[in-house]
Amino acid sequence: QVGYHFTCGGRLTLLAHKTAVYKMSEFLELEALDGIRMPWNVIPGTREDAVSCVVPVSAIYTPLKSIPDMPVVPYAPLRCRMCRSILNPFSRVDYNAKIWLCTFCFQRNQFPQHYSSISENNLPPELFPQYTTIEYISTAETGPVMPPVFIFVVDTCIIEEEIGYLKSALAQATELLPDNSLIGFITFGTYVQVHELGFGLLPKSYVFKGTKEVSKEQILEQMCFFAGKQKPTTGVIAGTRDGLSSESISRFLVPASECEFVLNSVIEELQKDPWHIPADQRASRCTGAALSVAASLLGVCVPGSGARIMAFVGGPSTEGPGSIVSKSLTEPIRSHKDLDKDSAPLFDKAVKFYDQIAKQLVHQGHVLDLFACAVDQVGVAEMKVAIEKTGGIVVLAESFGHSVFKDSLLRIFQSADNGLGLSFNGILEINCSKDVKIQGIIGPCSSLEKKSPLSADTVIGQGNTSAWKMCGLDKKTSLCFVYDISRKVGPDTVAQQTGEQLYLQFVTYYQHHEGQMRLRTTTISRQWASGAATVQ
């Protein structure tokens, strides 16, 4: 029989095979089972055949897709000692010798002692044929439960009416946060103010200049993290494991259940930036410096733990790093034509700054979200690199009072299962059968530059690696994997048997919204097209 696959270029390629042609309903069932959609479900058998296809061999994968009846097991997965792939339903098992054969590298692996009772009638969940997607929770490997962290970075260079709308939206959003989540609060205008929510006796904040970046070392020194204590003389200081006390961290990142009164007071007392604005100038807005302070504060307090910087911006940055236009109103904001002609003098410098912010956030495992609410531009084009690489969210609206902004903000914290719905700090790895290589990923992630034999020479998107960082992800986050078929025409391919399978495995290690680290693995199987003569 013949499977018909139409390409977006209008070209028709026929993949002839002797197995039954799938019905559309069966493809939908496969997608619902594993969260994977592939344009080709019978894979071209040689590199030449794959190149002739207009649509590349690829897969769109939703790592955290909600899958009914997916097992969640309280132990660590079994990995192949050679290629580090995970035991799955396609692995061959010798129940007598207690050995399993890796699907990808064919390495023979011994089952550990706690699998001694395994048999054909007593299978662990990861070997059940229907459980091609499974999650593991191993407290021994993941350590203590880590609460999510949210830092609100609020622009005060907006009119009083807009501040009123923003106050109302922030008050509603903070009520939806889990009680154990940690909250920080930063405001910015001409200067950057970090509010000490852990000090409830009176409003207290630390002020930084808006004209320069702020490093972790400056945060440690100027915010008195080692007041009255001996500061370590060497090494990188980051979090409680490097000498910071939980008491010093809790001054600025406070559990939602403990700072409700102080946080509401800070939000209620928000006022317009008090510095005078001449009639012929724009407001002095230091967006870049504020985000630099937020990133460094998170890097000092909670590196490697899930956190989001949620920036609420109401106009263009005109002060310090990342500025996109001067204060003078005689200078217009750069347009698309200016970018095309390379006549926007501040653009490249701002992009370079936000690229450094992106690298810092990816290294720390933190997310940047942007809520840009203004009739004028705010600099999303410059910030895009930091938001994309960290898996952040962008909401654009004309006003903080617009329903698009208010509804979007509330929807972020609401979930159908009454949970937060947001996950953090993920790492995605892949394993492929022989003759299949990965060209790259298109989606909200950043390469971890893990060199691997699985990497193809041609790069599409984030490539030259077999592992990617996903700082922020949810149940709808999807990624496009583009593959390269490296098998060439030869005696082996001519003699290839009908129905031979190839395997792909996706491994996602992430911080669940409940705080614990989880590992989800999805393993799928597809057929090779049987021989070069079958592609017409």
TrEMBL record:
<feature type="domain" description="Sec23/Sec24 trunk">
    <location>
        <begin position="146"/>
        <end position="413"/>
    </location>
</feature>
<keyword id="KW-0479">Metal-binding</keyword>
<dbReference type="Pfam" id="PF04810">
    <property type="entry name" value="zf-Sec23_Sec24"/>
</dbReference>
<dbReference type="Pfam" id="PF04811">
    <property type="entry name" value="Sec23_trunk"/>
</dbReference>
<keyword id="KW-0968">Cytoplasmic vesicle</keyword>
<comment type="function">
    <text>Component of the coat protein complex II (COPII) which promotes the formation of transport vesicles from the endoplasmic reticulum (ER). The coat has two main functions, the physical deformation of the endoplasmic reticulum membrane into vesicles and the selection of cargo molecules.</text>
</comment>
<dbReference type="GO" id="GO:0005789">
    <property type="term" value="C:endoplasmic reticulum membrane"/>
</dbReference>
<dbReference type="InterPro" id="IPR036174">
    <property type="entry name" value="Znf_Sec23_Sec24_sf"/>
</dbReference>
<keyword id="KW-0813">Transport</keyword>
<keyword id="KW-0931">ER-Golgi transport</keyword>
<dbReference type="GO" id="GO:0030127">
    <property type="term" value="C:COPII vesicle coat"/>
</dbReference>
<keyword id="KW-0472">Membrane</keyword>
<feature type="domain" description="Zinc finger Sec23/Sec24-type">
    <location>
        <begin position="77"/>
        <end position="115"/>
    </location>
</feature>
<feature type="domain" description="Sec23/Sec24 beta-sandwich">
    <location>
        <begin position="424"/>
        <end position="529"/>
    </location>
</feature>
<dbReference type="GO" id="GO:0008270">
    <property type="term" value="F:zinc ion binding"/>
</dbReference>
<comment type="similarity">
    <text>Belongs to the SEC23/SEC24 family. SEC23 subfamily.</text>
</comment>
<keyword id="KW-0862">Zinc</keyword>
<dbReference type="GO" id="GO:0070971">
    <property type="term" value="C:endoplasmic reticulum exit site"/>
</dbReference>
<dbReference type="InterPro" id="IPR006896">
    <property type="entry name" value="Sec23/24_trunk_dom"/>
</dbReference>
<dbReference type="Pfam" id="PF08033">
    <property type="entry name" value="Sec23_BS"/>
</dbReference>
<dbReference type="GO" id="GO:0090110">
    <property type="term" value="P:COPII-coated vesicle cargo loading"/>
</dbReference>
<keyword id="KW-0653">Protein transport</keyword>
<dbReference type="GO" id="GO:0005096">
    <property type="term" value="F:GTPase activator activity"/>
</dbReference>
<dbReference type="GO" id="GO:0006886">
    <property type="term" value="P:intracellular protein transport"/>
</dbReference>
<keyword id="KW-0963">Cytoplasm</keyword>
<protein>
    <recommendedName>
        <fullName>Protein transport protein SEC23</fullName>
    </recommendedName>
</protein>
<dbReference type="InterPro" id="IPR006895">
    <property type="entry name" value="Znf_Sec23_Sec24"/>
</dbReference>
<dbReference type="InterPro" id="IPR037364">
    <property type="entry name" value="Sec23"/>
</dbReference>
<keyword id="KW-0256">Endoplasmic reticulum</keyword>
<dbReference type="InterPro" id="IPR012990">
    <property type="entry name" value="Beta-sandwich_Sec23_24"/>
</dbReference>
<dbReference type="InterPro" id="IPR036465">
    <property type="entry name" value="vWFA_dom_sf"/>
</dbReference>
